[in-house]
Hints:
The longest helix is centred in the last third of the chain and has 23 residues, at 178-200. The chain is an alpha/beta fold. It has 7 helices and 10 strands. The chain has helices spanning 13-30, 65-71, 95-103, 118-124, 178-200, 205-208, 211-217; strands at 42-43, 50-59, 79-84, 108-115, 127-133, 145-146, 150-152, 155-157, 162-166, 169-173. The strands form 2 sheets. Strands 1, 2, 3, 4, 5, 6, 9 and 10 form an 8-stranded mixed β-sheet that branches. Strands 7-8 form a two-stranded antiparallel ribbon. The model has no long low-confidence stretch (mean pLDDT 96). The protein folds into 2 domains: 13-176, Ribonuclease E inhibitor RraA/RraA-like (Glucose Oxidase, domain 1, 3-Layer(bba) Sandwich); 184-228, no CATH class.
Amino acid sequence: MNLVVTNIDRPDPEVVAGLARAGVATAHEAAGRIGLLDPGIRPIQQGGVVAGPAVTVSCAPGDNMMVHAAVEVTRTGDVVVVATTSPSTDGMLGELIATSFLARGCRAAVIDAGVRDVAELRRMGFLVWSRAVHAQGTVKDTPGSVNLPVECGGITVNPGDIVVADDDGVMIVPSLRAGEILQLAELRLAKEGEKRARLAAGELGMDLDGLRAKLEGLGVRWVDSFNEG
């Protein structure tokens, strides 16, 4: 379907900010281990953290015309999610189009294809997670869609879902569950803070997590030397 949807429902900014603080690993666990894009989609920078509403883009492989079409519908804080209708590693986004996105307040993209001009993108502070880094350029010939559901990294992404991305990868938080997942993530963070303090004091995770008893139940024994075994 060849459509550009200009308006989408965006989540509560405080929920978005909270999920950014939680990070991908914690949000993924809090969500019940769903929504994680496959590990082939990786950051082109280190230390980048972003969370924001997804503006979804569907393109033909090797054709980034719809990425250009997406620029005018983005708002501050959005994350562009680019998928292609068949596998592609061509550079769907580079320095010039990133300049346009930054002018709209959009400073991040997730691309199930390639990206190029990575040195310039890092210098600009435009954050990208992509399947490939590839200087191969694109054409602008084929229609597609903006702000319809897309498949990216094995996950269905709906416009307005929350993209959470950092050095650990990318996950998608369904907009309808965002508040619930944030609450669960904050509970995990509090528990992790307590556990971190106990580990730093010398306690063992084996005992804190009950793993010693579990291993004993599975038949593992502790001996002073191999000969005793």
